[in-house]
Design a protein that fits this description.
four-stranded mixed β-sheet, binds S-adenosylmethionine, single chain, 18% strand
Length: 320
């Protein structure tokens, strides 16, 4: 990550939104936190610390790393479509879709949240522009990481994001929950709990729509899995992308959608954040972390509580 000093900032040719212009040059601490890895630069500003500092202690990555003890299966079959999959009757990936339509509209927006989305994958005949590979495309919206007074770092968009648009994937190290070092505080763990959502057990908000899950190719839906806690997580503590800076909101403008593409194991699904509504420019991006109150235990074994500072009128006052 390249940090910059104020002398350099003056020479940079950035388009700076008028709304942010006042302190922009003084508070810019990094020109691109992704170091060129994303399709669009992600700037970092800090109007809070004196002197302003950039986020530290993690390495930016754009696809999940897989921990040594995790085996990700590969998908053996794919569709034979050419270009973009348009016909649900002839695309063989459509067998995973309940209903008569692909999950995305022609302009690449998710029509409605689903239990899980099965997209076309790398082994499919269709190309990278396929309309059923929406979550696999590069970052489209200009995002800024900025420092807040009560929530640490946060992320806002500089662009209008339409409802249903894919925003960013939660990226980190794909690991087993039981292999995490619980003696270290880690605020960046995302449990992959699609099965809880699908089965309506303390899940994040209930998903509508659906996918024909009981196929042989999608991982077993045994009772064993249904009652178990999530087995796998994405740990963005040391490795991650800009999504690791997105805060919790009690009235969020993003929602979590599990997606499968290069394998069909629901327990290892990819975690995508989609726009839950039309999001105007310069708005902070948030999603509901979905914690149950008193469900988080600290390294000392005691139940932890965290106050919520999302600022929503409907704020529940605690994250957990
Ligand atoms: C995944 S990180 C989000 C980025 C984080 N703010 C940072 O500075 O890196 C999650 C942590 O951010 C903070 N956080 C997120 N949402 C919050 C909220 N609504 N109110 C207070 N703190 C929040 C909490 O410390 C939480 O454990």
């Amino acid at each position: 990550m390249e940090a910059i000093n104020s002398g350099e900032i003056e020479t940079q040719q950035y388009f700076v939104p008028i709304k942010l212009k006042r302190n922009y040059f003084l508070s810019l601490v990094c020109k691109d936190i992704s170091d060129g890895q994303e399709a669009i630069n992600i700037i970092v500003t800090n109007e809070f610390d004196d002197p302003p500092v950039a986020p530290a202690g993690f390495t930016y990555i754009t696809s999940n790393q897989v921990a040594k003890h995790v085996k990700v299966p590969s998908r053996t079959s794919g569709c034979h479509c050419q270009g973009s999959c348009r016909n649900i009757k002839t695309c063989s990936c459509a067998k995973y879709i309940k209903g008569s339509k692909f999950p995305y509209s022609n302009n690449g927006r998710l029509i409605e949240p689903r239990d899980i989305i099965v997209e076309c994958g790398p082994q499919c005949g269709c190309g990278p522009t396929c309309g059923n590979k929406i979550s696999q495309k590069t970052l489209k919206y200009r995002l800024e990481v900025y420092r807040t007074t009560k929530k640490g770092w946060a992320v806002r968009t500089w662009d209008f994001i339409p409802s249903g648009a894919p925003v960013i994937e939660y990226i980190g190290v794909l690991d087993r929950d039981d292999m995490l070092d619980n003696s270290i505080e880690n605020d960046y763990i995302f449990d992959i709990d699609c099965l809880h959502t699908i089965n309506e057990i303390d899940g994040r908000e209930r998903r509508l729509g659906g996918v024909s899950l009981p196929t042989k190719e999608i991982s077993k839906q045994s009772d064993e899995y249904i009652i178990k806690d999530p087995e796998f997580c994405i740990d963005a503590g040391s490795f991650g992308n800009v999504s690791r800076f997105i805060n919790h909101g009690c009235t969020p403008n993003l929602f979590v959608q599990c997606v499968l593409s290069n394998h069909l194991d629901v327990k290892l699904a990819r975690v995508m954040l989609f726009a839950a509504e039309d999001i105007p420019p310069y708005q902070e991006l948030t999603y509901d972390y979905g914690y149950r109150l008193d469900s988080v235990v600290g390294p000392d074994g005691n139940i932890k509580q965290m106050q919520c500072h999302c600022g929503s009128e409907e704020c529940r006052k605690r994250l957990y």
